[in-house]
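Hypothesis: this fold can be encoded by more than one sequence.
Test: take the C-alpha cells below, design a sequence, compare later.
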C-alpha cells in the first residue's frame, strides 16, 4: 500500500505506477541523481539524452555512473522538439548500436522527457527509458504518465505515442539551479492539480511558503497524476481533467511561437481564461500573482480561438474542455467555437 503524504523512509519516497502493461517505480529523494545506478537495475547499455540547459555537472554525474553511455545533447527550448532533432537522436542511437536490450536515460525538463520518450518509443519499435526530470515542470507533471511527443510547426504535441518509462527518479535538489521564473513555471501545474483534485494542495499555495513545502507540493502532484494515469492511461476519460487550462494555454504558446511565454505561464493564463466561477478565479489570480505568473496577455482573440479549435482535443466543431466549479473537483464540458470565443472577452 502506498504510504500517506509526507512519508519519507530515510529521506526517500517510493511509489509504484501501475498501468495495464507495465509497473514502474516513482522515486522522490533528495540527492538521488548521485546514485542513480542503485535504482537502474537493467541489463544493457545506456544512452543519455539531455539539452544545453541542464547543468554540465548533472550530465557528468550520470556519465560517471554509466561510463560506456553516449551523450546526445540538443539546444534548450521547445523549438528543439521537432522532427529534425528526433531524426538526429535516432541516427545517434543507430551509431551507438543500441538494441532492444538497451535503454535511454532522459535528463532534463519537459522537452527532454517528451522527445526522449518518443525516440525510445519509436526506435526499433520501442526500447526502455528512464526519466530523470530536473525542472519543477517535469518533476510535478510531465515525467510520469507515458505521454511522449514532438511538435509540428505551431501544433504542440500533435505527433507522439503513449510509452511508459521504466522508472522515474525525482531529485528535488536539482531544482536549486533553476532561476525563479523557471521554478515558478512548473508550479503552475501543481496549482492546476490542486484545483482539479486536491483542495489541500491549492491551500498550500494560498497560505504556505512555497520553498518550505516544495516536497509536499511535488509529492501531492505526483500522487494525483499517478492515480489518474492508472485509471485512464490513454486519456479516454478521467485523464482529460489534467488538461485544465491547457486548451487555451497551448493556443497561447503557439500564438507566441513558443518563445515569449513558458508552458506553465500559458497554462496559468489558460486557467484564468476558462474559469467561470468568479470566486475561484479571484483566488487563483492571487495565487498566480504570488508566483509571479501572468494572468492575461494581448493576443489576437480570433487567432487564439482558431488555435484552440485546432488542438488535439477538438472534435470538428466542438472541443472537450475542463471546468472547475469547486476547488478540488473538475468536470468536462463540450464547447462550441462560439463559446471558445466568448471566454476571450
Amino acid at each position: 500500500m502506498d504510504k500517506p503524504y509526507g512519508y519519507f523512509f530515510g529521506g526517500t519516497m517510493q511509489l509504484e505506477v501501475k498501468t495495464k502493461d507495465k509497473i514502474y517505480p516513482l522515486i522522490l529523494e533528495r540527492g538521488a541523481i548521485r546514485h542513480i545506478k542503485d535504482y537502474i537495475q537493467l541489463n544493457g547499455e545506456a544512452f543519455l539524452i539531455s539539452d544545453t540547459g541542464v547543468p554540465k555537472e548533472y550530465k557528468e554525474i550520470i556519465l560517471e555512473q554509466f561510463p560506456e553511455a553516449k551523450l546526445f545533447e540538443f539546444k534548450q527550448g521547445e523549438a528543439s522538439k521537432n522532427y529534425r532533432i528526433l531524426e538526429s537522436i535516432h541516427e545517434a542511437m543507430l551509431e551507438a548500436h543500441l538494441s532492444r536490450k538497451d535503454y535511454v536515460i532522459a535528463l532534463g525538463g519537459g522537452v527532454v522527457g517528451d522527445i526522449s520518450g518518443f525516440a525510445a518509443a519509436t526506435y526499433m519499435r520501442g526500447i526502455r527509458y528512464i526519466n530523470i526530470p530536473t525542472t519543477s515542470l517535469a518533476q510535478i507533471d510531465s515525467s510520469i504518465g507515458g505521454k511522449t511527443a514532438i511538435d509540428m510547426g505551431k501544433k504542440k504535441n500533435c505527433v507522439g505515442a503513449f510509452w511508459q518509462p521504466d522508472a522515474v527518479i525525482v531529485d528535488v535538489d536539482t531544482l536549486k539551479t533553476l532561476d525563479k521564473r523557471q521554478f515558478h513555471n512548473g508550479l503552475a501545474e501543481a496549482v492546476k492539480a490542486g484545483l482539479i483534485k486536491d483542495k489541500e494542495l491549492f491551500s498550500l499555495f494560498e497560505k504556505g511558503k512555497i520553498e518550505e513545502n516544495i516536497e509536499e507540493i511535488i509529492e501531492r502532484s505526483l500522487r494525483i497524476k499517478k492515480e489518474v494515469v492508472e485509471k485512464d492511461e490513454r486519456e479516454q476519460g478521467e485523464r482529460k481533467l489534467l488538461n485544465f487550462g491547457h486548451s487555451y494555454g497551448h493556443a497561447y504558446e503557439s500564438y507566441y511561437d513558443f518563445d515569449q511565454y513558458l508552458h506553465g505561464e500559458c497554462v496559468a493564463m489558460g486557467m484564468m481564461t476558462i474559469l467561470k466561477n468568479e470566486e475561484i478565479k479571484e483566488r487563483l489570480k492571487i495565487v498566480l500573482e504570488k508566483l509571479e505568473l501572468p494572468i492575461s496577455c494581448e493576443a489576437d482573440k480570433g487567432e487564439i480561438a482558431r488555435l484552440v479549435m485546432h488542438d488535439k482535443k477538438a472534435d470538428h466543431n466542438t472541443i472537450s474542455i475542463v471546468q472547475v466549479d469547486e476547488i478540488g473537483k473538475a468536470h468536462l464540458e463540450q464547447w462550441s467555437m462560439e463559446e471558445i470565443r466568448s471566454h476571450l472577452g
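The domain at 12-177 is CATH 3.40.50.1970 (Rossmann fold). The longest strand covers residues 318-326.
Hypothesis status: open.
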